[in-house]
Amino acid sequence: MESGAGIANERLAVALKDPSCFGQFRNGSNPWMARYVYGLIFLFSNLLAWAARDYGRGASVTLEKLKVCAGKSDCSGAEGVLRVSLGCFIFYIIMFLSTVGTSKLHGRRDAWHSGWWTAKIALWISLTIITFLVPSAFFQIYGEIAHFGAGVFLLIQLISVISFIRWLNDCCQSEKNAARCHINVMLVATTSYVVCILGVILMYIWYTPEPSCLLNIFFITWTLVLLQLMTSVSLHPKVNAGFLTPGLMGLYVVFLCWCAIRSEPAGESCNRKAEASRRTDWLTIISFIVALLAIVIATFSTGIDSQCFQFRKGDTQDEDDVPYGYGFFHFVFATGAMYFAMLLIGWNTHHIIQKWTIDVGWTSAWVRIINEWLAVCVYLWMLVAPILLKIRRTAEPV
């Protein structure tokens, strides 16, 4: 057993020392390198779904001959996105089921996660092709399930972002770093609040050109109220979380509010900026590419952040422990597959989106707004919950 472990360690050392990406891909024993390969597979799925939506309508003729589309004229539009999403979802669910619970390196499941790329790429391609042979009626059901899966992804991403902000604040307030980071914390917090106020002012200027734009006025004003609420709770003597966390959370909620208003469909008098989205110019294309890359990066960064969902803290990690949770990583990508489908079809399976646009429609706008409000609720609960639990424990009779 010891000799086998020694050989495995030597192979891992060789793989890690190989500077070339191809060499690490060939060795197939580096879990850190594996993350990027899975990210590339996810990116290709996004691009394929976009191509199926915007440029795959000609394929509907072939699918109709196979009696897959059931007489639908828009078979490879929104439905094409759902088909690619389903193939990607099944692939990552298979990876989740086959790697969940992996705790040690050099085992069979670790080797499956970090290697066997030819087999896994062939599996992903096969699943994607098979989904285009499934009857259309099934995707009405999958579309509804994808709403729930995308919501799960947003919740996981939300908790991950808040956990990172709290971790950063705790790190800066620790005895080891408090004196050294004091000025940096004040600069970051001040900059965050300035950007938040500037963002709110710009949204008032851009998205409330008329007094009749009551919905946008409500969205922006309520965002300002939530920023004040987070700051007040954070500075309460019993919480004492400082200015950094509400400042960074303020950036996050202002960004979500901006995304929500930007998601309002073109043609609305209160969203004149959206009028430009009707024209496919270089700025529209660049914005779409950036948004697509943002989906992949958000999924990737959330997938490797399994520690914020561990209930037992402070456990020591051995050298042969896996560097991140494989099962959680693949589960996030599986829900991310549903998420990118919802963004490409505007969270509406019957909605046809214009080319080079993403996450547009009233459903998308309300999803963003609800996500913003939920973010504030989760953040406030994470601040108040320890105090409430402490009070409850104190009040309980011994």
UniProtKB/TrEMBL annotation:
Keyword Protein transport among record annotations: no
Location (main, coarse): membrane
Position of the signal peptide: none
Family: Belongs to the TDE1 family.
Protein name as it appears in the record: Serine incorporator
Membrane topology summary: Multi-pass membrane protein
GO cellular component assignments: membrane
